[in-house]
Design brief:
Distance between the termini: 46 Å
CATH class: Alpha Beta
Strand order of the largest sheet: 1-2-4-3-5-6-9-10
Order of helices and strands: HEEEHEHEHEHHEHHEHEHEHH
Strand content: 15-25%
CATH superfamily: Alpha/Beta hydrolase fold, catalytic domain
Structural class: alpha/beta
Shape: globular
Number of helices: 12
CATH architecture: 3-Layer(aba) Sandwich
Length: about 350
Amino acid sequence: MEKFKYIIVAMFMTAGIVSSAQNKSKSPFGLVYEDALTKNEHGKVNIHPTTYKLNGIEVSANVYTPANYDPSKKYPAIVVAHPNGGIKEQTAGLYAQRLAEAGYITMAADASYQGASGGQPRHTDKPQYRTEDIHGMADFIAGFDGVDANQIGALGICGGGGYTLKAAQSDKRLKAIATLSMFNSGEVRRNGFQNSQLNTIQNRLEQASQARAQEAAGEEIKYSGVASITDEEIANTPTDLYREGYQYYYRTHAHPNSTFLYTTSSLMDLMTWDATAGIEMINQPLLMIVGSKSDTKYMTDEAFPKAINARNKELFLLDGATHIQTYWKDEYVSQTVNKLMDFYSKNL
């Protein structure tokens, strides 16, 4: 594989790359993370699959309620935004379930145009849509039985972290903001991962513009990203983020609704966007969590000092963790959940 390669016009992911782990999933809810719920039981954490409309698009979501949930009582709530390429049944669901175990009503939703949510063309990945999705989650969860609308927090993972930073700038219903392994999608799509594509920005914008023109003419929709990958290609991928990411998304935690593909025309919006633009408008409490060995850590390091008006601001390092390991490895998941519990209990 070419080092740090991003613009790959690809075919749709086929069923053949869905891992045997997914095929053998014991969760009737399609959850592919460890210790996922397999049924709803009285007195335990329960999952409530749901749909709702956002700007005319049907959004697919899972709401998790804590043990002994009583809709006549009031609970704090957390909305969880999933990574780029991810869906609600993967790491976003894992953290939603773990936080529900801690007593919160939580929610993980598929982004519009992605996963089980509606919207055409499929896999459109525009920042304004992803940010609006977070506002939409706040709309929905505020009206869910038992939720205290004055106690809503947000957690954004990877790309969802960057979009959560953007949503929090204007959405003051979100009272406490946390990110995990934050990925600034605009910066990476523009500059390349670790600034590896600075000399091709204009060429890639030309490709994106041509792709949009083709869409507008009713012709074939162009896609960028990786549709499928061999074990050898995974092993030879030089960066932890992508090598471990391919392993996570296409092998150990694969799901048919999850894909690395996105419309090439989305780059017109992505490349002119940045998660840190306007970040000084965040005045809520802010916690940013990142692995000390994550090759995406530079994005958190860039964003954190720019959030000059955030209250009770804290940067928390997961010693020894890479980006993808924070999605699933119990040692780091448990540390993260404990830190989030402390943060939300103090700030919600």
